[in-house]
Amino acid sequence: MPKPLCPFNTWLDDDEAITSHWDADSRRLFVGNNDIRMRVIDVGREYHVARSEEQLQKLMEGSPLGIRVFIVPQEFSWGSLTISEPCARLLASQLQTFPPFLQNLHAFGQRAEPSNETLGGFSAQPCQVFQRHERVYLLKCIEKHGREYLDNPYSIRQFAVYHDAQGDGSNDSFVVVNPSASSMLSQKMKMLQNADLDIPSSETIHLIMISAASQNWDDYVSWHEQALYPLTNKAHVVQENSDNPQPSSFQVTTLDMQRLQILQNSMHQALHVLDMNRTTIESLAGDLWPSFRSDSPSMNTFNQSRVRRCTADLKGAQRRLNTLLGRSDAISKLMQNIMSTRSLATLDESSKTTTELAKLAQEDNKLMLSMAAEGRRDSRTLKTITVLTLAYLPASFVSTLLGMEYISIKSSDGHWSMHFKPEMWIFAVLSVILLLVTFGLWHGLDLRKRHQEGDTLRSAGIDLEKGWPKASRMDSWQSYLSRRPNVVDEKHAATIQIGR
Q1: Mind listing the pLDDT tens digit for each residue in 209-229?
Q2: Where is the CorA-like transporter domain (predicted)?
Q3: What span, in angstroms and rounded, lies between the C-alpha atoms of 492 and 367?
Q4: What is the CA radius of gyration of the chain?
């Protein structure tokens, strides 16, 4: 039967929801039984490494002779805690932790993307009957991640601390979750086992945690200031209306806007973490030393003065970030104005080009209208000629035929007779042959002209049977016009080139 998680308060705690959440996240939070690696430090004496539930059970059954610290690291920054679910349940049960500690554990474990970045805070629960005082808090610190392919060399890491204060504090227990191996906190944890040093008190251990959460923030803010400088410089030196065009490296682009937004998001996140750390530290100090809430410096001990110095460092970093955010907002507005000005200039050029094309189209329409009017007049003239020809052609033919005396008409005794000369058949044969030759020559010349025009259109990409191609309509039209200089003048061709 699994160990109970913690002694729930029946009236105040939702034990069913806490247990359900624990069961749902256990595979993400904890490693298997073969990967357990947990350190147990008896401060000022020795340390042990628990690699199984049995070893942890044996260590916890022995009465500690002073302050004991349980260290639960992660496999890596987004990895599982190096403790199994039964071991975590055993630890919570033996220490009788209160629910806020279990809730803070859910901020760790395997992740595929950033999550729980806004989680943090302080909780405390005194118990006068059993003379114990529980505290739990989650803080965040700044560390270098060592991944050279990222622009930002820093990462925001988090750690959680549970403190079970017993009586006078000589037999207190701490649980430190995820003290990063590269941080000052991990180094101080190793020093706790050194018997040659003075044995630290519980207050000193809390000061170590507070110091770890307040370090490297100035470097982190300075990196943001350095990252903001190139964007500021580019926005200040750009000249959109200059007659001499600037290189592309001096022009504000959407990529610069994106970088600025990413930088602002990082600064907003850092501001939240700084405020959360400061609030958590002040709440912890107020719980450790009630006199910390007093504004009188004479009431502060050395430890309290150290805490005030840490909170002052955090406030200073907050002020710097607020200043950088104000500057970045001004740069963002300037970049937006520059890009808007550029867009308006481009739109103005496009409008001018469209106007020129419209004028040319209007001129083309006028030309086509004039050509249509001339064609209509020519058609009317041809129609008149055709009608007149049809009217006079039969009479002219008869007149010509009779004038050649191939046909003679005689009257005898009231009877009319028509006589054809023998040469008549020669006239008929020659006329038919010449007519056929004339129609043949006309048809041949017309067919040749059609083939020539078809080759010209096909070379321009125009197929009269399939229609005009969609992909290269402007190119085809320009190619066709280049072969027909008598249709469009140089001004039309230049305007078509601008329109592209």
Answers
A1: 999 999 999 999 999 999 999
A2: 17-235
A3: 12
A4: 49
